[in-house]
Amino acid sequence: MTIIGLPALVGSYDNLIWILYHQDKAWVIDPGESSQVIDFLQQHSLNLHGILITHDHQDHTHGVSELLKHCPESNIYGPKNSPLSAYYPQYKALQEKDSITLYPGYTLNVLDTPGHTPNHISFLIMKFCFVGILYLAQAQENF
Ligand SMILES: [Zn+2]
Fold first, then answer.
1. pTM over 0.90
2. Which of 29, 69, 75, 130 is the most exposed place for a label (fewest CB within 10 A)?
3. How large is the average pLDDT for residues 129-135?
4. Would you say 28 and 19 are in contact if contact means Cβ atoms under 8 Å apart?
5. Ligand 1 centre from 116 Cα, in Å?
C-alpha cells in the first residue's frame, strides 16, 4: 500500500488530502477539494473505492460531491450523526472499534476522538494515524 498527501486549499487551510492505494484500488481521506484527487486517480489508473471523512468541516468534505460524480461506485464513510448521511444514501457511519479492510492485510481501525468536533473520528492504519487536523506548536529553545 502506498500513502500520499496531496496539498489542498493551498494558501487558506493548507490541508493535505490523503490517498491510500494498492494495485488499482484507492481510498481518499478528507477530500476538501476534488480536482487534484481526480487528476491523481486518472494519472495512476486508480479506481476510487472509498471516501473516508474524519469530521464534517467543509475543508475536509467539500470535494465529496464532485468525487462521487466521477466515481459513483465509491463508498463513503464518516462519523455518526453527520449531515453527509442525509445527502449520500451510501454513507456508512463509523465509530470506535469499527474496522474496514482496505486491502488484504491492511485494516483501518476507527478511534473516537471528540474535541475538534463532538463526533470526530480518526483512522489508525498500521503505524499511521490520520487525525484529520493537527496543530504543531513551534519549537521553543528556552523552557
Ligand atoms: Zn475541522
1. yes
2. 69
3. 82
4. yes
5. 6
